[in-house]
Structure formats: structure tokens, C-alpha cells
């Protein structure tokens, strides 16, 4: 019940922000910062800093990464769960793609067909490592153990990133 009230309150503040101007990462609560996109189309990211008392505090910041065709978006809890990501992670790494359990969730239809923001993010992370995410997902579905071996051996099974189609949050 309390969670429902908080979600309704938060959604109503987004409508108010949209009416008054823009959706700014720095104004988001840290609990929804991860996997959000501001009005500018830039990704929001969670950063940690040490306060004067030595305690670690978290802040939502605007990154320089622009997401094509997506603005004012906060990923749903359903997508976060379906894709196996953690909204409270500080920094993202393509190393997660080496975890077959994570890749299995990321490549699942529940994530792949309904969560274009997360897919776009990991598509780009994978491409930065020379890995074409749709090929990785195909290998994951057919032979997960082999996919992880080939990925960890420098992506030999996957297309060269230069030959891969341009990134898009399209299902594969």
C-alpha cells in the first residue's frame, strides 16, 4: 500500500515537472535514478560521494550519453526485475555480460521485447567491447556455456562491432 502511494506521488511529480519545464536527473530520487533518461535525452546515473562526516552518499547526475528517440523515461520495476539489473548500481560494466545468468535474463523475451532502454544501454556496452548483443543472445539461447567461453575469449563468435548494424532498441 505504501509503495503504491509513493509510486503515485512520484508519477504525479513527473507530470508536474513536464508541465513546468523539464525532467532533470539531479531532481530525481536516487531510488529511481538508475535507468532513467532526462528531458534532454541524456541518461541519468547514480554517483557516490563521501560526505564531510565520511559517510557515502548517493546522487543522481546527468551523464553526457544521449539516447536516441527516448526522453523523460524511468524504467519500470518490472523491466529492472526482468532484465536482472540493479537500479542502485554505481557504474556499469560490460563484465556483466560474462555472467550467463545475467545474460540469460537480459536476452529473455520479458526484457528484450519490453525494455528498450535497458536493451539499448547493454547493446552499446556490448558494442564497445566488439560484441553484437543479438548474436550473443542467440548463442545464449542455444548454448549458454559455449557463448560465455567464446565471449570471454575476446568475442570470437560475435560479429566485429564495426560490421554490426547501428544500435537500436529493437527486439532480437
UniProtKB/TrEMBL annotation:
Keywords: Signal
Highest rank taxon of the organism: Eukaryota
UniProt-listed InterPro entries: PAR1
Key word tRNA processing present: no
Signal among keywords: yes
Signal peptide stretch: 1-21
Protein name from the UniProt record: PAR1 protein
